[in-house]
Amino acid sequence: xxxxxxxxxxxxxxxxxxxxxxxxxxxxxxxxxxxxxxxxxxxxxxxxxxxxxxxxxxxxxxxxxxxxxxxxxxxxxxxxxxxxxxxxxxxxxxxxxxxx
Length: 100
Known about the structure:
Layout lengths: L8 E4 L5 E4 L1 H6 L4 H10 L23 E5 L6 E5 L7 E2 L1 H6 L3
Antiparallel strand pairs: 1-2, 3-4, 4-5
């Protein structure tokens, strides 16, 4: 995970596939119940950005970036985001679903 450079999460899977996940995508795909409910109510898919409020200027919104991460090679990862959110657990199965 490239937290210090802010570039995202890179995974090399056992089958040789390489995946890169940008941090804004991971934040917008947060699998926690709170985020899943919010996406469901607004009709968004995991990873899809929320619509801005009328009059909001996107250039003034800080980009999503984790401040820290927890996890081990064989366990899910939990990210602690710069917007104080830290409920989502990104399992390997969840991440593989979005493997690009």
